[in-house]
Amino acid sequence: MRHGKKFNHLGRTASHRKAMLSNMACSLIEHKRIETTVAKARELRKYVEPLITKSKNDTTHSRRIVFSYLKNKHAVTELFRDVAVKVADRPGGYTRIIKLGTRLGDNAQMAMIELVDYNELYAGKEETKKTTRRSRRGGKSSDAASTETAKTETAPKAESKKAESKAEPKAKAEPKAQAAPKAKAEAPKEETKAEAAPKAAKSEDAEGKNDAKEDNA
After folding, report:
1. Which residues contact 62 (CB under 8 A, 6 or more apart)?
2. What element of type H or E holds 213?
3. DSSP 82
4. DSSP code for 137
């Protein structure tokens, strides 16, 4: 019986356990997600999240402390250069554990642990807040003021449309008025043709009388 057991020893000695968690933390920082058992993932989260918080303060002292845990200069550089910038606005909870089911060999509970800010599927879903309009019963609201301004703006437009509609019939009536005198002017021409025949007959009779007078003479 182990009284005062504060954490999972994972069936390993202290040195073996520290080396394993250090290697897993380096892999998580470099690859952003790894698959392991649920027990190891929970212990890794306790191990790596304080180091990520420490990386937000980019000083020589912070780098030396993180290096004493990771023992890998490439992982330390990646942590301070890229990961720290990505999680700068997050106050904690840098990792996520997703259970994957059981392993075929020993039926162990498997899980995937990943850095939250590097998951594009969950990061792209941002809920948009729906805004609702609220109006008070007493007094004029902003909506009423907007409707009044809209009415004042539409009134001159309606008057201008009415004026245009009145002007259009006048424009249409003018061609008719101009066409009427032309019809009247053409009518006398037809009457002159009708009157020209009797006049021509009269002139022929007069010419015949003149010829008869000349013959008599």
Report:
1. 54, 55, 80
2. helix 142-216
3. I
4. S
Spatial CB neighbours of 92, under 8 Å, sequence gap ≥ 6: 49, 53
The reported pLDDT for the residue numbered 68 is 97
Q: How confident is the model at residue 70 (pLDDT cuts 50, 70, 90)?
A: very high
Give the single-character DSSP code of 117. G
DSSP state of 118: G
What share of the chain in percent tops pLDDT 90? 51
| Distant-in-sequence, close-in-space partners of 28: CB < 8 Å, separation ≥ 6 | 34, 44, 48, 95, 113, 114, 115
pLDDT in the model for residue 33: 95
The neighbour count for residue 51, using CB atoms within 10 Å, is: 21
Superfamily of domain 14-119: Ribosomal protein L17 (3.90.1030.10)
Separation CA 121–CA 160 (nearest Å): 56
Query: Residue ranges of the domains in the chain?
Result: 14-119, 167-217
Distance separating alpha carbons of residues 76 and 71, to the nearest angstrom: 8
Based on the number of CB atoms within 10 Å of its own CB, is 112 exposed (0-12), middle (13-18) or buried (19 or more)? middle
Q: Are 83 and 55 in contact (CB under 8 A)?
A: yes
**Which token pair is 42?**
């929970």
- pLDDT, residue 183, reads 47
CA distance 25 to 19: 10
Strand order in the sheet with 109-115: 33-37, 109-115, 95-102
